[in-house]
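Known limitations

Structure tokens in this collection are predictions and should be treated as such. Users comparing against experimental data should check residue numbering before alignment. To illustrate the layout, the record for Adenosine 5'-phosphosulfate reductase is reproduced below. The input appears on top and the generated tokens appear beneath it.
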Amino acid sequence: MTPVSLELLPRSTVLTPGPGRKRSAEELKAIAEEAARRFDDRGLYGNHDEIDPNEVLAWAGETFGDALAVACSMANTVVPEMTAPHAPGVDVLFLDTGYHFSETVGVRDALAATPGLNVVDVRSPATREEHEAVLGAKPYETDPELCCRLRKVEPLDAALSGYEAWITGLRRVDTDHRAGAGIVEWDAKHGMIKINPLVAWTLERVHKYAEEHGCLLNPLLDDGYPSIGCEPCTHRVEAGADPRSGRWAGSSKTECGIHL
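Generated tokens:
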């Protein structure tokens, strides 16, 4: 663990780009519970049918308007591009950690030029250089949990506080932790609604959709990186291996903390 005081780091409040919440947590939770029943594909409420993501996104755009945000890692742009027709001008939150591959930043820049989307860079109040001055030159190696918390989790938590619902690209097949995820959930951690329109899809289905609809795919996907995070913590994997085995390779870490 990092033997330093985090008080040495800038910890100013990150201003949310969102419009703020008009509904109470109780109201939002009731909306989440009703939507979970409506968009049930796991048989929890008797329905085992596949749910069309566009139906979910149309509901989300109508229900939340500008209080809706999309989180995108820029491995692909399927979710924001699928959302755009249902929520024109929707904010797309990109966690700019300072450690991304140049290819990832390139996808971010290309998406920012797409009509109907507003890409918002979410950053820690401390720069990469400020973090390394306090935590050491390679904080992602000495304390990856702390690095993820400071560069990803805390900045996103602050950014999401101004929205009522957020859309993710989370999928059940990614990790054991995500296996029980619903299409619409109550996000108790953030006190808001979490929407996972592609939660039942495989990675192959996402990529097929991207190719058929002209969505952007990160070039690293064809270079041995089926799951893409920060450059120092992402490694190539052998063909046929677990797509996420290249994330934090050699450790038991499987999540950055955003979806925990």
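For this record: The helical segments are 25-38, 53-64, 78-83, 102-112, 128-135, 139-142, 144-160, 203-213. The chain has a mean pLDDT of 91. Please report discrepancies through the issue tracker.
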